[in-house]
Amino acid sequence: MVGGVWAFGYWEPRLLPVRTIEVQGELHHHSSELLRETLGQRLQGGFLTADLNDLKRAAEGLPWVGGASIRRVWPDRLQVRVLEHRPVARWKGDGLVTAEGVVFRPRGQVPAGLPLLEGDEARARELVERYLKWRDALMLAGQLIDTLGVDARGAWHLDLVSNTRVELGTNDIERRLMRFIAAVPQLEAAGRARVVDLRYSNGFAVKWAGSAVAAAPEPVPPKTAPPTHTKARKKGATANTATKQTRTPTQAQRPAAAKERPRPRTVAAPTKARAQTPPPPRHPPPAPVRASGRALTQAVPGRP
Question: What is the pLDDT of residue 285?
């Protein structure tokens, strides 16, 4: 009996070898050659003794393979059907997550353009479900999700592509999000919101971003006459009436010509002489004396 088992195990791979591994399914991140090479290295035995479960685990061990099924096709072929992961978001920067909440970490570069989900891996399915639901609701309001996360306390937050952070807190998450969506038109009309805090019972707080102010034109200085230079009274002393204070040269600094040149004199125009009225006499004149037929002599004081 033991010898028969040994003989079957020895001759079966030689008489009924697996000659072909056929790969079916859409592969976008793994080539069929890589999958066949991986299964060929794990294959042990012939067509009848090959361990299909072990080959299935080897296929699903590849980063992008979400599921695999293997069956025998007589006389010497193994048919492998592969389903690749379809990621809907990035997970914590180095991983990806599918719509079913499966987190996997592919080798090489993570595809760009996917939103980021952050949280405990045990809540990956909940995060994906809320992301898919909120994505469609926010899209109708013209908003796109860049990051969706939940911290260890259970507080949710959103980072939108428009650089707006939405704080939802831990309670009434759905109602608060609907309140934000209803207020999007008013927020966009008022400015660019940096943070919208909805952790209030009947309202929210907004922190506005520093909006770019259009550069105002520089003020044009009033047109003024060009500064004129006036000569001082004495030659050599020049004053700038616009910006400089007039400085009078000292006696030592004055040129010799200025010392010798006399100052011009101003002569007043002649005026007409007015008629002068003689001043009144200091003593009243003597009273006149009437003659009465004989000569009268007026006595003069001091004369006999």
Answer: 52
